[in-house]
Design a protein that fits this description.
The termini are far apart. The chain has a domain of 186 residues: Alpha-Beta Horseshoe (Leucine-rich repeat, LRR (right-handed beta-alpha superhelix)). The chain has a 14-stranded parallel sheet. A two-stranded parallel sheet has the order 4-6. Strands 9-12 form a two-stranded parallel sheet. α9 packs parallel to α10. The protein is α/β, with parallel strands linked by helices and 414 residues long. It has eleven helices and 20 strands. The longest helix is centred in the N-terminal third of the chain and has 18 residues. The chain is elongated, with a radius of gyration of 27 Å. The chain is 27% helix and 23% strand.
């Protein structure tokens, strides 16, 4: 009879296969493989990727300093036993890191050829200054930083492989930010959230496709980012002096985004775009724009509404329009403007979906709804959500002229 022998086939697999298996597991589970046998005691410390999140720490630990000490135990084991490269490190658990520990760990990661470094939200009274060695890490492809101070070393020559850069609660000067972004030749995704200290945002990035900004700036320039296809700007602009306003901001900032496909803007930024004369339409049509999302638009503001209509008139292929409404009152100038638009005979021949959320039931809001329904011949769905009280009555909506025979109107209330 054939003898049955216990063969440890898994332990004898090539390391790249084992690494693939262990990396796909939560780090805590990968570490538990150390109890399998002597061979497995330190295999987990040799992984090519480390993601430290809440699942790595005991659930009863709430003290942020103690949580960091537990994280340091993991880091210490890795530093003692690791051989080979570390391609990805992600810190995604709320803790209070010791800056010296974090600096030494980043130094270790750069020596290991790190490609993706992600530092998400942690607790720190004082911002952590990034070690200069990070900026001599040419293979970085993804960099996400939180609560850091960024100052480039004199030897910085750029990140030739960096495709994604996300900065949150980071302190960085306008000049440093411009140099950093401008020296990432393959950068495709840029996110800037709650940035500290910059006054002017200038983007020079020929390959950039996706941009999200939620921060304060005095001014913004996007004219050197020709491939931008998705832009989300929730910019809180520091008010400009009259002598600083040289041209219409709508034309200067948005008019250069001729390849844009999806555009999200907030009310604070609409105020900035409305500085100076707002044209009926932009000099260059936004032919690729298929989705427009405007947040907290005020239908009592004639300038907000002018910006809205300038964008609509400049987007002949728009398919989806999403609007959330800020607190509004009746406004005669806006009502007169909307009625004048009805006489111009402008039509939206590609618009299929309209969502208007948070209306207050004011006359300008109702006039806008009438305008869209009367000038959108292929409209399929309009969703209207009222902020308070009863939803818009069916009888009122039935009386509104519709250019589309097939449009379905959904009326809701919050």
């Amino acid at each position: 009879m054939e003898k049955h022998t216990d063969v440890d086939r898994i332990s004898n697999l090539p390391w790249d296969v084992l690494d693939t298996i262990l990396v796909s597991m939560p780090l805590k589970e990968a570490a538990r493989t150390s109890i399998l046998s002597r061979k497995w005691r330190s295999k987990w410390t040799g992984l090519s990727q480390f993601i430290i999140n809440d699942t790595c720490l005991p659930s009863y630990l709430s003290d942020k300093v103690v949580r960091w000490k537990e994280i340091m135990k993991i880091i210490h084991q890795v530093r003692l036993n690791h051989s080979g490269p570390i391609e990805k490190f992600k810190l995604a658990t709320y803790c209070h890191p010791n800056h010296s520990d974090l600096e030494q760990w980043i130094q270790f990661l750069t020596e290991k050829g790190i490609k993706e470094l992600i530092l998400q939200e942690f607790d720190s009274v004082k911002r952590f200054k990034l070690p200069s060695c990070l900026f001599s890490c040419p293979q970085l492809s993804c960099l996400e930083l939180y609560g850091c101070i960024v100052s480039l070393s004199p030897t910085f020559r750029g990140f030739n492989c960096l495709a994604s850069l996300h900065l949150t609660h980071v302190s960085i000067s306008s000049y440093t930010l411009e140099v950093l972004v401008g020296n990432c030749p393959v950068l495709e995704s840029l996110m800037l959230l709650h940035i500290h200290h910059p006054s002017f945002l200038k983007i020079n990035s020929l390959k950039l496709k996706h941009l999200k900004i939620d921060s304060k700036f005095e001014d913004i320039c996007l004219e050197n980012a020709p491939l931008l296809s998705s832009v989300d700007i929730r910019l809180r602009i520091i008010p400009q002096r009259p002598d600083q306003v040289k041209a219409c901001n709508l034309v200067r900032v948005i008019g250069c985004l001729h390849g844009i496909g999806k555009l999200i803007l907030c009310s604070h930024f609409l105020e900035f775009l409305a500085y100076n004369d707002v044209p009926e339409r932009l000099p260059i049509m936004l032919d690729h724009l298929f989705a427009l999302d405007l947040r907290e638009i005020r239908f009592e503001s004639i300038m907000d509404v002018r910006v809205l209509f300038s964008l609509l008139s400049s987007a002949p292929n728009l398919e989806e329009l999403i609007i959330s409404v800020g607190p509004s009152n009746d406004s005669n100038p806006v009502v007169h403007f909307l009625k004048a638009q009805c006489l111009l005979g402008s039509y939206f021949y590609k618009l299929k979906v309209v969502k208007i959320r948070g209306i207050w039931g004011t006359t300008p809001e109702l006039e806008f709804i009438r305008f869209i329904l009367a000038h959108s011949p292929v409209l399929e769905m309009m969703t209207i959500v009222k902020y308070r009280g009863e939803r818009l009555s069916e009888s009122l909506l039935q009386r509104v002229e519709r250019a589309s025979e097939h449009v379905k109107i959904i009326s809701l209330t919050l």
